[in-house]
Design goal:
Structural class: alpha/beta
Strand content: 15-25%
Number of strands: 12
Low-confidence stretches: 140-150
Radius of gyration: 19 Å
CATH topology: Rossmann fold
Shape: globular
Order of helices and strands: HHHHEEEEEEHHEHEHEEEE
Number of helices: 8
CATH class: Alpha Beta
Oligomer: single chain
């Protein structure tokens, strides 16, 4: 609802103004809500994926499940700042606090990128871009992180985005990855939207594929035998490679705390 009000040009900074606009324009808001879904596409999550991606055999063929508009399929095109250490030379620069892990020496070599989503968004479509911008959360807890530079990068070289199911359609898309590249199937903050039986079926399918599987999900979303105590009360994801947990991460890429 907040995203739709923002998408329609309504006020989101003042509660009274928001309420008044929503009541006055409810038919249009309701209609838009029934046709859209929240698809946060935060490229900052690449910062917590980077240490794992850079350590895998290069070059990489990336396949993101729940790709939205595919902004996380460009980890090689952004720059990163881990404290005083900068990796890469692209734009924008993604900030991440890293604990217990050394920043990688460089960005990965990506030769193929594809995404799978029930409702992929097109960064070359102005309405889809406007919806992505509307989903940038307002509020003092996290400053808005503009998608314009990230979306522009993807629009210049759009990834292959396929409308499909993460279980039924994953093998066919993975089969399109070029030979000689390491296939990496990955997802961030996606599986909580998937019913538990389908998560189990997905894990079975992805374990049967060549290459590697990177998951970055909440600790109660995918089963792990044992996890250390979370670092503080803030919500954290678990970063895992091929089913082995490696680190705690903040959900939008703000921090990584390595424990493996």
């Amino acid at each position: 609802m907040f995203g739709v009000v923002r998408f329609l040009g309504g006020p989101v900074g003042d509660p009274a103004a928001f309420h008044g606009y929503t009541v006055a324009n409810w038919p249009a808001i309701e209609a838009e809500m029934r046709t859209r879904a929240t698809q946060t596409n935060e490229a900052g999550r690449c910062a917590v994926l980077l240490p794992v991606l850079a350590a895998l055999p290069q070059p990489l063929a990336l396949l993101e499940v729940g790709a939205s508009a595919g902004l996380c399929l460009y980890p090689d095109r952004y720059a990163y700042r881990y404290g005083d250490h900068v990796v890469g030379s692209g734009e924008p620069v993604l900030e991440c606090a890293a604990t217990g892990v050394a920043p990688p020496p460089g960005v990965p070599d990506v030769v193929w990128r594809a995404g799978l989503d029930l409702n992929p968004l097109d960064v070359t479509d102005s309405a889809d871009v406007a919806w992505l911008e509307a989903l940038i959360w307002p509020g003092a807890c996290a400053p808005p992180r503009p998608t314009a530079g990230r979306g522009g990068r993807a629009a210049a070289e759009p990834p292959l985005l396929v409308r499909g199911d993460l279980v039924d359609d994953l093998p066919a898309l993975a089969a399109q990855a070029p030979g000689g590249a390491t296939l990496v199937v990955f997802h961030t903050s996606v599986m909580y939207q998937v019913p538990a039986p389908r998560r189990e079926a997905f894990a079975e399918v992805v374990h049967g594929l060549p290459g590697h599987w990177i998951a970055n999900e909440g600790p109660d979303v995918l089963p792990y035998a044992a996890l250390p105590k979370p670092p503080g009360e803030a919500l954290h994801n678990v970063l895992a490679l091929d089913g082995t947990p490696l680190a705690w991460t903040r959900s939008h890429g703000q921090a990584i705390i390595w424990f493996a």
